[in-house]
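Appendix C reproduces, verbatim, an entry submitted by the partner laboratory led by Prof. M.T., so that reviewers can inspect both the input and the predicted structure.
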Amino acid sequence: MSRPIIGITSSLSCDRDGGSSQVLDCRYVDAVERAGGCPLILPMCTAADSLRPLLELIHGLIITGGPGITEGLMGELPADLPPVEAQREQSDSWAFEVLQECNKPILGICYGMQFINARSGGAIYADVEEQLKVGAHSPRRNGGRGIQHGIELVRNTFLGELLGEVPPGAEVNSFHIQAVAQVGAGLRVNARSADGLIEGVENEDGGIVGVQFHPERMPGTIWERLFEHLVERAAQWE
């Protein structure tokens, strides 16, 4: 049985000599492989027609975590959150647009969820801790200590049906400074944290799902179902 090809976006790391490197946490690749997919790291190109043939080849897409969203921003980015590089933002936009055109499944993670929401016309808090006076949601604001918290799935949503009841004590991790303020057109909230922050969005048929946490960092948990769902949907396009 063949594995559907899942494209995975990456981030840029600037070198001291003025160059840059394309970087990706290997846990994204591992999560796709465990779910039965063939992970393919997408390059960042300078022209849409350079990337499009590859985007038409893949069967599903993961928009990974990253730096600060600048589109649809409410407020100003804090000093400890650099803005997304123009090259990454453009490549992510091309990938999102082509997969939408083809109606292929997309999973957005952290920055990826915020990106999907902003591209759909939604609004993003620049610094949710400062703007809403909530506790830290990022280890960099918590003395480097990891953050875990509970989550509540919204009833009558695709994610709610996919995961069912979240087991007692099941928590998610937290690495974000920004957060979704207003949901974009065609999207709805499917999960919230105890302090009311939006932890997930989706479109009506579940072809697009976004989560604020990082499921790739929680192997062996219920959250791996997100990758399995992506691969299952992507298999329809083989």
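The mean pLDDT is 92. Additional entries are available on request from the coordinating office.
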